[in-house]
Amino acid sequence: MSRVRILTEETNSVFNQFIAEIRDHKIQKDRLRFRRNLERTGELFAYEISKTLPFVKTEITTPLGVSEDQLIKEQPVLITILRAGLPLHQGLLNYLDKADNGYISAYRKHHKDGSFDIELEYLACPTLEGRIVILSDPMLATGSSMILAYKALLSKGKPKHCHIVSLIGSHEGLEYAKKNLPTNTTIWLGAVDQEMTAQSYIVPGLGDAGDLAFGTKE
Description:
Rossmann fold, 32% helix, eight-stranded mixed sheet
């Protein structure tokens, strides 16, 4: 079963402040601040994930001599689910700035009876064979989008390890992801909420991250 890290349950930090602002319906009206807060959480996720990456001792020449420092040995591949994942992805990229990047589209195709299917239409990324992958999306609701995205990525090769990053997950979505992802996966969440609506929106959640970041869509 996949390993799970929930940052707000490990210790209190500025991460809690960012999540609180992202949830706040008044602060959400400032679209720029909403995107920047998502980006900030991505930066903090990147910092925590970097502790798990392989490092190698490297000689660095300074103006006054030579220093032995530890540098990331193997750059990951950062992949996000369009469009809501873009600010979170940017935060990860701000810190893991030498990483390769990939993008995948996933959206809910709603039916008249209120049900929906997850549709994937676009995938662009480098080979993933033997690579460390960081797959991000702000919300882990049912978990279906994330699992379908992960399975689609396997067409590009089998990763050595995959880090799943979401700001907020539902209890149901987390359990679904744990059961349907391989053991060489770590799930990183900011917080876990216990409820979902009949339309599979997380409660209390934060609303539609894509719409809040970029505007409503038809």
